Automatic annotation (TrEMBL):
Protein source organism: Camelina sativa
Family: In the C-terminal section; belongs to the trehalose phosphatase family. In the N-terminal section; belongs to the glycosyltransferase 20 family.
One Pfam family recorded for the sequence: Glyco_transf_20
Superkingdom field: Eukaryota
Designated name of the protein: Alpha,alpha-trehalose-phosphate synthase [UDP-forming] 5
Length: 862
């Protein structure tokens, strides 16, 4: 049984309009909506917590969402529309990677504009015959969305072109951004009409739909959502110039899996998340993941492949064989260099032509023997830059042919008229070398197609004069700046801007030995034939299933407005600490212990002011003066600082430098851990840290009595993180025989004696109370980072032991939602202070409680 929304569309497809009532009315409205939607328009779906509709779908289904449907349309002379599959569409080809039992539904636009009166009929036919759901967009809105925001802002920026002048993409236009949001919202509405949110997978493709994940996640918190970017992702220095940079990043992070063609693209995305959103990533068992509000957003790095069987079927066509024979005769006794590119500014056609001109200038003997065939496909965009590229290309070709041409020999053959696929295939077959000199390209599958076509088949081998047993051969010259370059290890990689280097590569490709051509071809053919489009799609779907595996297990709810919306996902056993609950437990217990971290817990992280406020001191005094309480503040700070800051707290226990120094109250002396024998290791570690401080601007060294801390909070985040890894390895190698541990924290590397951690304070407190015959029946432990996990571990492990009361109430609480040994969390330091204030005033008279709470306001705490 399918979901109700999907069955409504099936009713439409089958003609059962009587059962469509309200939905029939809604379908054309969504399909034909025009104008601009506000980015804060929730479409009455702001209540996302309970939005996941139930479903009983038993068959696996994936919804593929792309800018265009994999459909060709044709209108005959009578005006009747007919439709067929577009076999060249990647969205259709990736079906080869799906399981046979997986149903595929497509959502996208049609290439042809459909009149409003025809839209219902077209939708019915496409759903019934192709399982395609068209999104109808008005011409005006489509122009702003596609030719405006996508092609004037995103596409140039992602290809490293900044709008420094109005001619280079133009200044940021807010109306184009609104149009982009409106179209993404239309796509979201179409997905909502067909999705069974508990069962279906959704796979969104490319930069046209980058905010779609937010719209879908807002409606269905547990939607199984993947996104693949088919263009480059620029470095942070380029991307950060985009006025809506954070909105797009946060939208992508609402996906479960984000795919990129190369590691460089993924690295740039992760760097942007780090620099602009403050997020860090980690790699576990080969998978890169970003922790985002309790959800792990996985990163997939895998270049797309080609549809090999389709190419092979074209190679077997009689038309292809005829065309190959024709080209063989046309270029008899000549070596063909082939370029196949779109006519746009990033494909580097003019650079390739200049290299060809230089080759013929420097090597006169190659005149008459070498021909460059440049196939120039029509540009996908439009504008002044396309016209300039076309004019420059035609002028350069004319100059080269006039300079080096002669009767019967044309050194450059420019083909700027559309070719049928079999004709392009024929050029691949006869070309000695394929040249791709794009200055920036997301992937570029031309080299892959060339490799498969050079493998040929028996009939084509016979036509071009190859023996049946002869080894196949090919040569590739590819730009360093295209996505397929890293996977082609046998290609000659060039910087396309360096004309001399491209010229040398072209010359080498022509004179290299036959054995080397065969070796390079075999290496490429092995990779391309095993990493086809089916392999790519299958691998992505498998990773998407893995990334969504724990959706059902986690509790999810949405927070934030507009494009700032995100989903908080937590383990069922990890929940927000209820102040009412802990106050109730606090009131009914008699032997209580409270363990508090300071930085990040009692004071906001990154605050300029780190000293405790008057209100904080008052709360700590109220808690520690209660005879039923033992209160410890445990910090990584040195004991002199803690003594100075909390001198007015007579009954407050202090743990300095992660528990190495302990002072039960103000009237006692500091005690030291017996675990440490000496600090000679500092003489080794400090010079090493000083070296990294000198080379890392913004880093500092904090010297404590028992530890050394290298802090890079104010350094460049990427460089600081890189230096921290190097420093950690360096310290571990030079201190391998010393009784110390080297650990990383939030933007720091710390060296301290082994065995010294905050858990020592918790162990000592529990043991001391047990020896006094007073078993603790209430423990509250609050912290915010890794160093506090030791305290959490001690109190949680003691829960079922004899050291605590059998009915002990244990509250291990961390700050923020993140993986932790704690079972509770509060969102920030303001909530921690409010919770402690609630405990401190819980036993006071009602009048005192009201006055005390009123005296503490959040703005005064920090």
């Amino acid at each position: 049984m399918v979901s109700r929304s999907y069955s409504n569309l099936l009713d439409l497809a089958s003609g059962n309009f009587h059962s469509f009532s309200r939905e029939k009315k809604r379908f054309p409205r969504v399909a034909t909506v025009t104008g601009v939607l506000s980015e804060l328009d929730d479409d009455n779906n702001s209540n996302s917590v309970c939005s996941d509709a139930p479903s009983s779908v038993t068959q696996d289904r994936i919804i593929i969402v792309g800018n265009q449907l994999p459909i060709k349309s044709h209108r005959n002379s009578a005006g009747k529309l007919s439709f067929s599959w577009d076999n060249d569409s990647l969205l259709l080809q990736l079906k080869d990677g799906m399981r046979e039992d997986m149903e595929v539904v497509y959502i996208g636009c049609l290439k042809e504009q459909i009149d409003t009166v025809e839209q219902d009929d077209v939708s019915q036919r496409l759903l019934e015959n192709f399982k395609c759901v068209p999104a109808y967009i008005s011409p005006e809105l489509f122009t702003k969305y596609y030719h405006g925001f996508c092609k004037q802002h995103l596409w140039p920026l992602f290809h490293y072109m900044l709008p420094l002048t109005p001619d280079l993409g133009g200044r940021f236009d807010r109306s184009l951004w609104q149009a982009y949001l409106s179209v993404n919202k239309i796509f979201a509405d179409k997905v909502m009409e067909v999705i069974s949110p508990d069962d279906d997978f959704v796979w969104v493709h490319d930069y046209h739909l980058m905010v779609l994940p937010t719209f879908l996640r807002k409606r269905f918190n547990r939607v199984k959502l993947g996104f693949f970017l088919h263009s480059p992702f620029p470095s942070s220095e380029i991307y950060r110039t985009l006025p809506v940079r954070n909105e797009l990043l946060r939208a992508l992070l609402n996906a479960d899996l984000i795919g990129f063609h190369t590691f460089d693209y993924a690295r740039h995305f992760l760097s942007c998340c780090s620099r602009m959103l403050g997020l860090s990533y980690q790699s576990k068992r080969g998978t890169i993941g970003l922790e985002y509000y309790g959800r792990t957003v996985s990163i997939k790095i895998l270049p797309v492949g080609i549809h090999i069987s389709q190419l092979q079927s074209i190679l077997n066509l009689p038309e292809t064989q005829t065309k190959v024979a024709e080209l063989r005769d046309q270029f008899l006794n000549q070596k063909v260099l082939l370029g196949v590119d779109d006519m746009d500014i990033f494909k580097g056609i003019s650079l390739k032509l200049l290299a060809m001109e230089q080759l013929l200038t420097q090597h006169p003997e190659k005149r008459g023997q070498v021909v460059l065939v440049q196939i120039a496909n029509p540009a996908r965009g439009r504008g002044k830059d396309v016209q300039e590229v076309q004019s420059e290309t035609e002028a350069t070709v004319k100059r080269i042919n006039e300079m080096f041409g002669r009767p019967g020999y044309q050194p450059v053959v420019l083909i700027d008229t559309p070719l049928q696929f079999f004709e392009r295939i024929a050029y691949y077959v006869i070309a000695e070398c394929c040249l791709v000199t794009a200055v920036r390209d997301g992937m570029n599958l031309i080299p892959y197609e060339y490799i498969i076509c050079r493998q040929g088949n028996p009939k084509l081998n016979e036509i071009i004069g190859l023996e049946p047993s002869a080894s196949k051969k090919s040569m590739l010259v590819v730009s360093e700046f295209i996505g397929c370059s890293p996977s082609l290890s046998g290609a000659i990689r060039v910087n396309p801007w360096n004309i001399d280097a491209v010229t040398e590569a072209m010359d080498y490709a022509l004179i290299v030995s036959e054995a080397e051509k065969q070796m390079r071809h075999e290496k490429h053919y092995k990779y391309v034939s095993t990493h086809d489009v089916a392999y790519w799609a299958r691998s992505f779907i498998q990773d998407l299933e893995r990334a969504c595996g724990d959706h059902v297990r986690k509790r999810c709810w949405g927070i934030g407005f507009g494009l700032g919306f995100r989903v908080v996902a937590l383990d069922p056993s990890f929940k927000k600490l209820s102040i009412e609950h802990i106050v109730s437990a606090y009131k009914r217990t008699k032997n209580r212990a409270i363990l508090l971290d300071y930085d990040g817990t009692m004071v906001q992280p990154g605050s300029i002011r780190t000293t405790p406020t008057r209100e904080t001191i008052e709360i700590l005094n109220n808690l520690s003066s209660d005879p039923k309480n033992i209160v410890y503040l445990v910090s990584g700070k040195d004991r002199n600082t803690l003594t100075e800051w909390f001198s007015s707290c007579d009954n407050l226990g202090l743990g300095a430098e992660h528990g190495y120094f302990i002072r039960p109250n103000d009237g006692t002396d500091w005690e030291t851990s017996s675990l440490v024998s000496g600090f000679e290791w500092k003489q080794i570690a400090e010079p090493v840290m000083r070296l990294y401080t000198e080379t890392t601007d913004g880093s500092t060294i904090e010297t404590k009595e028992t530890a050394l801390v290298w802090n890079y909070q104010f350094a460049d985040p990427d460089f600081g993180s890189c230096q921290a890894k190097e420093l950690m390895e360096h310290l571990e190698s030079v201190l391998t025989n010393d009784p110390v541990s080297v650990k990383t924290g939030q933007q720091l590397v710390e060296v301290k004696p082994q065995g010294v951690n905050k858990g020592l304070v918790a162990e000592r407190l529990i043991t001391t109370m047990q020896e006094k015959g007073k078993l603790l029946d209430f423990i509250l432990c609050v912290g915010d980072d890794r160093s506090d996990e030791d305290m959490f571990e001690v109190i949680m492990s003691a829960k079922d032991g004899p050291a605590l009361s059998p009915v002990a109430e244990i509250f291990a609480c961390t700050v923020g939602q993140k993986p932790s040994k704690a079972k509770y969390y509060l969102d920030d330091t303001a909530e921690i202070i409010r919770m402690l204030e609630g405990l401190a005033t819980s036993n006071a008279p009602i009048s005192d409680q009201i006055g005390s709470i009123a005296a503490v306001s959040t703005k005064d705490l920090f």
